[in-house]
Amino acid sequence: MKEFIIEVENLKKSYEKVEAVKGVNFSVSKGELFGLIGPDGAGKTSIFRILTTLIFPTEGQVKVLNFDVIKNYKEIRSNIGYMPQRFSLYQDLSVEENLTFFARIFGTTIEENYNLIKDIYVQIEPFKDRLAGKLSGGMKQKLALCCALIHSPDVLILDEPTTGVDAVSRKEFWEMLIRLKEKGITILVSTPYMDEANLCDRVALIQNGEIMSIDTPEKVIQSFGRKLWAVKSDRIYQLIKDLKSMDFIDSVFPFGEYLHITLQSDKLDQDQLISMLTDKNHCQIQIQEIEANIEDCFMQLMNNEKLTVT
Amino acid sequence: MRKIKFILQKEFIQIFRNKTMLPLIFGVPIIQLVILVHAATLEMKSIDMFVVDKDLSSLSHKLINKFEGSPFYNVSGVSFSMDEAEEAIEKNKADFIMHIPYGFERNLMRENSSRIQLLIDGINGTAASLINAYSSSVISDFNRNIIVDLTKMPQIKDMNPIAIETSYWYNPELNYKIYMLPGILVILVTIISMFLAAMNIVREKEIGTIEQLNVTPIKKYEFIVGKLVPFMIIALFELAFGLAIGKIFFHIPMVGSLSLLFGFTIVYLMVVLGIGLFISTISSTQQQVMFIAFFFMLVFILMSGIFTPTESMPVWAQRVNIINPFYYFMRVIRMILLKGSGFWDISREFFSLSIYAVIILSLAVWRYRKVA
Question: Is this complex's ipTM strictly greater than 0.85?
C-alpha cells in the first residue's frame, strides 16, 4: 500500500460568484514529483492555497501528511515548504537576512539544514549581502526555494515557480527539483508550461477548475491515441482558415510556427493535401507526421470537454 | 517567546533600513512642535481697525489714541464714510469698524451717556469674540477714566466696590504655547504609532510576505506583539524627544511625574496600536489604510479638546468622546505636565483607557484570524 502525502477528495472552492475549483480528486504519494498543469485561471493557485492552509475549502476532504487542512493546520504548517507564485520574501532584507529569519521562525538554523539547500545556496551565496529586491528573477526563485526548504519540510509546494523566469534558469530550477526529489522530498508543482510536464512523475491536467486527466506523462501522451501532423506554409493565418474548412480535418491548433492537425480517419494523403493547399495559393508547404506531446493532449482534452458541454 | 525576538529583530532592521523612517522619526516632531506651537496660537495681535470718527472731538481722539497705543491694535484706515469702512471689511483690510457718531462728546457732557458702534467681521467666530472682548475692555477702561475726568473728582476706591483680581492657576501668564505643546505631542505620538503600525502590516499584505509568514508556525500573538512593540518603542521615544524639545525651546513646565506620564502613554499606545491593527485587518492596501486612519484622526483630533474645551461641546459630542482616545490623553498629558496630577487624579482616564485597550485589541486580534 502506497503512502499518500497529499489526499484531495471532491475538493470544491467558490469565491463570491465564481466557482474556482469544481470537485477535484487526486493524491500524491511519498517521494513523488507531481505536476499540476494548466493555463492561468484553471484553479491551480486556489488548490495550492487550500493545501497550504491559507484558505479554507468550500467542500471536500483535503489531507496533507495525514493532517486535515482545517482541523490540523498547525501541524501542516510546520512540515511543508511553500513557494507562492509571487515572490514574497522581504525585498528590503538581504539574502542572508531572509534565510536566517525564516530558519529562526521555524526554530532551526541555516547550519542545521545546510546540506539540503547547499546546491542551491552556493549559487546565490556570492550575493548574500544584496537586498532580495535587487536580485534577478532567477536568483529570486532560488532564494525563495532556499527559504521554503530551510526547515527541511516533508512536502514542497511550489506555485508556478518558473513563470517569468528565463529558459536557462527554468532548466536549472527543474534540475534542482529533481535532485530534491532524490533526497526523498515529495514535491507538488504547478506550471502553465507543458514542456515541463515531462519532467514530473505524474501530472494532472487541469482546466476550469476540473482535472481532465491524471497519469504519468508517458501515459498521457499514449492516451492521445491518434496520428498527428505538423503543417506549415508561408501564410500561416490563412492556412488555419483553409485547413479548418476542409471536412476531413478534425482539429487544427497553432504550435509555434507549425500547425498541428488531426484527421477524422488517421489516414493522410500528403500529396493530395499539398496540391489542395497549392490551389489556395500557399507556398513552401511542409507536412510531416509527428509524435504528440503533452500540449497536444491538453488541447485535445480541452476540445473534448467543450464538445461534451455543448 | 524567542520567535518574538526574531520578529522584532527583523522589524527593526526593516524600519531603520527604510530611508524615510529616520527623517520621519526625528524631523516630524521638530517641525510639528517648533512650527505648530508658534503658529497655532489663539492670541490676537495686530487687529486691524477701521475708524469712522464723525465727532472729531477731543474725547473721540482720546478714545482712538487709547486703541492706537495698545499693541493689539493697528489702525488700518480712517474715513468719515461708513460705506468706505464697510468696503474695507469686505476686502479683508479691516477686522472691525469703530464708529463714533456725531455728537459723541456733546451727549456725554449733557446727558452723561453716549454711544459708539463696533462692527466686527464675524467670518471667524473665535477671532470675532476675541476682538469683542479686547475692545470692550479697552472701552470700559476708557469709561472709568472719563468718569474721573468729567466729575473732576479724584479716583476713589468706591468706583469699584468689588475689586476683581484674577490669577490663572497652572499657567499664570496664560502662555498659549504651554497649553498647545502637550496637545501637539499627543497628535504626534498618535500619528507615528497608528499610521506606521497599520501601514506596516498592510505592506506585508501588499507585497505578499504575509502569505509566507502565515504558512510558518508563527503564532498569532507572536506576530501581533512583534508588529506592535517596535512602534510602541518608537512612539515612546518620540514622546521623550518631543518633551525634550518642549523643555529646551519652550520651557514647558513638567510638574508631575514623568514616569506616570510614560506609564499612561503605554496604555494609551495600546489603544492606538489596537486601532491601527484593526484598520490594517479591514484594509488590503496602504491607500485604504491612509484614508480610514485619516478620517478617524481628523474627527478624533477636532473633538479631542486640543483647540476648544470639551466641556463646552454639546452633550452628545461629549458622549462620543468616550471612544475618542485623544480626548483622554489630551486631558491627562496637560494634567500631569502642567498641574502635577498624581495617579488618583487621572485614575478615571487610566481605567477607561485600559478597558478600551482590552476591547480594541481583542477586536483586532479576532478580526486578524480571518485574514490569516
Answer: no
